[in-house]
Amino acid sequence: MSVQAQLTKGKITLKGSARIVTEFFMYGINSILFQRGIYPVEEFEVKKKYGLDIWVSNDQQVQKYLEKIMQSVEEWLSMGKINKLVLAVNSREARETLERWQFDIQLVEEEEVVAGEKPKPPKSEKALRMEIQAIFRQIAASVSFLPIIEEKCTFNILVYADSDAEVPTTWTDSDPLHIKNAEQVRLRSFSTDAHRVEAMVAYRRDPDLC
Question: In the 8-state DSSP scheme, what is residue 208?
Answer without folding.
Answer: G
